[in-house]
User: Fold these one by one.
Assistant:
Number 1:
Amino acid sequence: MDGVIFEKLKILSDSAKYDVSCATSGVDRTNVGRIGNACAAGICHSWTADGRCVSLLKVLFTNKCVYDCKYCVNRRSADVSRASFEPQELAALTMEFYRRNYIEGLFLSSAVEVSPDETAERIYRCLNMLREEYQFAGYIHAKIIPGVSPEIIHRIGMVADRLSVNIELPSQESLSRLAPQKKSGGIFRPMRQIEQTLAEQKTLKGAGNMGHFAHLGANIAAGDGSLTEMTSSQNPIAVKETGRKYAERFAPGGQSTQMIIGASPENDRQIIKTSESLYTTFKLKRVYFSAYIAISEAPELPARFTPPQLKREHRLYQADWLLRFYGFRADEILDERHPFLDTDLDPKIGWALRNIELFPIEVNKASLEELLRIPGVGTVSAMRIIRQRRISAVKYDDLKKMGVVLKRARFFFTCMGRYYGGKEPDPVYIKGIMLDAEGIRDNLTDKKSWQQISIFDNHLVENKAANNELSI
Ligand code: SF4
């Protein structure tokens, strides 16, 4: 590899390490005469202990930023090495890595060099080159810079599998304080545009009318976030995309976002409510949480080297799971009297202990929704219970085989009328047992586990692989 490119890669992959929203799930595209695949089960992931994905080439297009977000290592005032790729350089590098089997796809984010549109245009050229010139059909996740014009968002969406617009902070107030150049409108308008384009695409696909696909997303966001359709003369893509082989779907993996945890004073309740609202309003696939790593010196931020709130991040991910798969509402998970998640307890157990009067639940009579409320019962085991009940009553010994985690669940259910929690459900007693059982929780604070794996950290990779912590 050329020494200059290598140096750029070193700087720009290091600069990207604080962005965690890079899962690759949800895309299923068959490869016909191209290079690479992007199918739901076909992409191999390697994850660090804290959930960061290392199978993609995760890199910034540039870290030369005209903005000065206080929490960011790449802010204009930070004294760090700077670099930018040329579109051709990054496209060629991605292919080189892909062919060597280093990576399965590309996760491309960026700082704002000159302006959002100028940077996004260069990103588009790079991605389009990958798709058109190199015929790359692998996974691409592209970050949309807040404030980018709708027309460029549409073009990037046509060549990327997933898009994300980072909300960064849970409230407008914190955004104004810590990232004054970013406006919430500049974040929500692209989210709205992506959501509407995906909805239109789904409708057309359902009607078997993908011939009009080239016009999708050709919307102009008004100041209030509403959208009006572009005319074909305003939308050069409408003409250009027609007949283009790759123009099959706009961002088939949907959109996601990332929130920084611990850089601003919002409590967990506000964070979960914001997540809920993002899921319902913009149909996001995922909200990622990233514990703030105190690298910046600013009076508005936690002191430098304050440990990142990894346990809190972990509990927020569990709460997010409750929102997405277990039918919980944000107001149920936390309320005004309990604004923070208990970092020592799984949020589902915390909720159950606060609502102990709802338990025990009889597993042979409960609805699916009720079964999902029992700590230790997951979506798969709940479905198995329901299926088994159609044939015969579920016995206690069956539950373990069905995947129920009895050491947690036994305090919250009865099976054929019998309670297995020792005595009547008592939140203090149960909490004590649960805390004892959570002996492994301290592993979350393992200092090494929160470090971002760099493709240059060979010794770290080797050590972790040797310990089976990371499968590369
Ligand atoms: S826009 Fe803000 S968060 Fe993004 S790279 Fe620039 S300073 Fe960092």
Note: The pocket of iron/sulfur cluster is lined by residues 65, 67, 69, 72, 74-75, 111-112, 179 (CB under 6 Å).
Number 2:
Amino acid sequence: MQLADKIALVTGGSRGIGRAIAEVFAREGATVVICGRKQETLDAVAREIAADVVPLACHVGRMADLEKLVNTVHQRFGRVDVLVNNAATNVAQGPCLSVDDVQFDKMIEVNLKSAFRLVRLIAPGMCKRGAGSIINIASIAGLRPQFEGLMYSMTKAALIMMTQSYALELGPKGVRVNAIAPGLVKTVLSQYYWSDPQRLAGFLETQPLKHLGEPREIAEVALLLASDRASYLTGQVVTVDGGATLR
Ligand SMILES: NC(=O)c1ccc[n+]([C@@H]2O[C@H](COP(=O)([O-])OP(=O)(O)OC[C@H]3O[C@@H](n4cnc5c(N)ncnc54)[C@H](OP(=O)(O)O)[C@@H]3O)[C@@H](O)[C@H]2O)c1
């Protein structure tokens, strides 16, 4: 039980990588609050995980929703020990010159500003207690540009720098801040890349590990970063991509 007595908040916990993180954290004894936009979906997920999982609807792009979420968690549990900024969207996929202001703002609000706001709402308590772990789910698209993924790559690159900047300032207060940069993982978000067998085969041809990533393979790394076993680890970007970025 590596997270016994810990309170964790995972954004985007209704499916994919966020759900896998919630499952692994719950398995290790944490009380896990999951958020997503639909309460009924979250309720069903919480029932399926069948452990200490608390479903709270929240649109992470809206400040009022985030404040309500954090207030509820603080009232109910008194603190957050582990924050996982996982929720993201990719509404602006396409040629870089076709991205408009609305898409730009939406991508910044959901993928980036949400993490900034949640850190601002939650980290002061962590600093006061002298302990906490913040994990930002970035992407290998934030390490190098993704073709027709201007906004996705930009937001993930900024999330990585946000991670390192917070790590530098919050480390002396006992708060560790790290990022995970997943490669291709089998979820709804990345369906385009793996649903066509030929496209997937072409992708795996250049990747050293010859399988498509599973959400659980990201979640186990998040567990390490969340736990006290990673007590000397901060400001890092852990790339979990089957070796894809080696090529
Ligand atoms: N899959 C990959 O290959 C891959 C690779 C690199 C990085 N990542 C990163 O991994 C993270 C998880 O992605 P995934 O692949 O698991 O995606 P996913 O299956 O599409 O899940 C996204 C989650 O985020 C939630 N979400 C989306 N917009 C939201 C909003 N405005 N407010 C609250 N929740 C919201 C969704 O719930 P609702 O729709 O119910 O709101 C869902 O739970 C993301 O940060 C993504 O960029 C994924």
Note: The longest helix spans residues 101-129.
